[in-house]
């Protein structure tokens, strides 16, 4: 089974009060941790084994998954024996590995600490703060087609400022705007185990160290994604994602994910 590594150990300082008591991937959009939204995106395409690379506030994420079944269901406690009976088992058939990869490890360093779990087959990697409607099956097919060690997903970011349509001096509507001039790293990677040979310490940064060396060796290919992508880097970003959720227009919720938003929430809590 293809494993998905989720970076979930950063400090997330630009989200202010949101990350004082919890790590950034546990910040909620529509009442759900953004980490859950991301995992759901992979699971919709059949990728259901996750390695969550923990660091800052690791215990919060551990407690969430440890108590997942009880948070989702009614249950009974037999006080004399401490036995617990859950009303029904969760619908999720995911496997979630929770691994502490160090408080101060960089992104490459987190992969370095996971090397013994990733050295046998192709694996995927992403950050714990970005949602997208990337077709994971097509991404994997693209990766397998070129035969190189690594694939990164390129996206066109939403411009910081939108545009205004005018009729004379009357404002007709506001429009979101994409930065159509540039491609950036969208954070959805596919790697072969050979990428692990490019890692050597906790201090290595995936983006500036490892990917640079892969590119120099001709081992890095780009998958261009022209659909939805958004990174929750600031409170402004969080508010934008919340507004999309509230409107019912949830671009990262692929058509493969059945059910309405309320049903989704019940299954994911």
TrEMBL record:
<feature type="domain" description="Nucleotidyl transferase">
    <location>
        <begin position="5"/>
        <end position="230"/>
    </location>
</feature>
<dbReference type="InterPro" id="IPR005835">
    <property type="entry name" value="NTP_transferase_dom"/>
</dbReference>
<keyword id="KW-0548">Nucleotidyltransferase</keyword>
<dbReference type="InterPro" id="IPR029044">
    <property type="entry name" value="Nucleotide-diphossugar_trans"/>
</dbReference>
<dbReference type="InterPro" id="IPR046981">
    <property type="entry name" value="G1P_cyt_trans"/>
</dbReference>
<dbReference type="GO" id="GO:0047343">
    <property type="term" value="F:glucose-1-phosphate cytidylyltransferase activity"/>
</dbReference>
<keyword id="KW-0808">Transferase</keyword>
<dbReference type="Pfam" id="PF00483">
    <property type="entry name" value="NTP_transferase"/>
</dbReference>
<dbReference type="InterPro" id="IPR013446">
    <property type="entry name" value="G1P_cyt_trans-like"/>
</dbReference>
<protein>
    <submittedName>
        <fullName>Glucose-1-phosphate cytidylyltransferase</fullName>
        <ecNumber>2.7.7.33</ecNumber>
    </submittedName>
</protein>
């Amino acid at each position: 089974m293809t494993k998905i590594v989720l970076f979930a150990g950063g400090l997330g300082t630009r989200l202010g009060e949101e990350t004082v008591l919890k790590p950034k991937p546990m910040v909620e959009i529509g009442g759900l941790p953004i980490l859950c939204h991301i995992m759901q995106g992979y699971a919709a395409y059949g990728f259901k084994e996750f390695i969550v690379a923990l660091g800052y506030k690791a215990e919060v994420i551990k407690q969430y998954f440890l108590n997942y079944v009880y948070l989702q269901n009614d249950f009974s406690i037999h006080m004399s024996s401490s036995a617990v009976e859950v009303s029904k088992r969760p619908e999720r058939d995911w496997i979630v590995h929770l691994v502490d990869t160090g408080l101060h490890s960089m992104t490459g360093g987190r992969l370095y600490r996971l090397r013994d779990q990733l050295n046998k087959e192709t694996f995927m990697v992403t950050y714990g703060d970005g949602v997208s409607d990337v077709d994971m099956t097509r991404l994997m097919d693209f990766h397998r087609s070129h035969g190189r060690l690594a694939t990164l997903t390129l996206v066109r970011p939403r411009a910081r400022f939108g545009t205004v349509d005018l009729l004379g001096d009357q404002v007709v509507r506001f429009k979101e705007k994409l930065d159509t001039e540039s491609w950036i790293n969208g954070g959805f990677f596919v790697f072969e185990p050979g990428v692990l040979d490019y890692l050597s310490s906790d201090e290595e940064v995936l983006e500036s160290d490892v990917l640079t060396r892969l590119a120099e060796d001709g081992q890095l290919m780009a998958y261009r994604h022209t659909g939805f992508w958004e990174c929750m880097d600031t409170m402004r970003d969080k508010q934008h994602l919340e507004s999309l959720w509230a409107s019912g227009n949830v671009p990262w919720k692929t058509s493969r994910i059945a059910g309405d938003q309320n049903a989704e929430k019940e299954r994911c809590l």
